[in-house]
Amino acid sequence: MRESVQAEVMMSFLVSEELSFRIPVELRYETSDPYAVRLTFHLPGDAPVTWAFGRELLIDGVGRPCGEGDVHIAPVDSEVLGEVLIRLQVSGDQALFRSSAPPLVAFLDRTDKLVPLGQEGALADFDAHLDEALDRILAEEQSAG
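User: That's the sequence. What structure does it adopt?
Assistant: Structure tokens below.
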């Protein structure tokens, strides 16, 4: 049975040091992909953009800087559970978002009630997800090339 947890969080999109604006971000977790969370950013004038990354990365990033590659998450102040920075990067372009930590923690707590951390393997058909992801990547490469 496919179950999910959803939440909407207002985040600041930090365009520059002088310019930022608040946007709604949908957080989603599904038992069909128990290792991942999805954040859908609703930027004004643009189609929504969804990023998927490890649930554990978001859990860890609320309390300490973490992430390699395209996603980096870190608390603004590691001494206080206040705000979290989420940096998403594609090639040389990057987007920086600031979120209040308590709504993220509440969302993560709900995901943990649905699938406790460390119990994802009981739900995941890793080989099927890997095959799906590889097929999708190959199809994207063929259509782009």
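Strands lie at 4-14, 20-30, 36-41, 49-54, 71-75, 83-90, 93-100.
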